[in-house]
Design a protein that fits this description.
The chain has 63 residues and is an alpha+beta fold. Helices cover 33% and strands 29% of the residues. The chain has a 3-stranded antiparallel sheet. It is globular.
């Protein structure tokens, strides 16, 4: 079944634009703990910025 995105916007900072584009699209469907897990597992990923439906901005960074 299709799931609605959990975030209004997701921005990914990565070493390559291709990686950032792919992960930002997929990351719209991940909760915050899964987003943090991406940072732990993907060394080319620097940060993920999330915007929820209320406009609250959260940036997760490595380390």
């Amino acid at each position: 079944p299709d799931r609605a995105p959990l975030w209004s916007s997701v921005t990914v900072e990565a070493d390559s634009a291709t990686l950032a584009d792919a992960l930002s699209t997929a990351a719209c469907h991940l909760d915050r703990s899964a987003q943090a897990g991406l940072l732990d597992r993907a060394p080319d990923l620097r940060a993920v910025t999330l915007v929820d439906d209320q406009g609250t901005i959260t940036t997760l960074r490595r380390g």
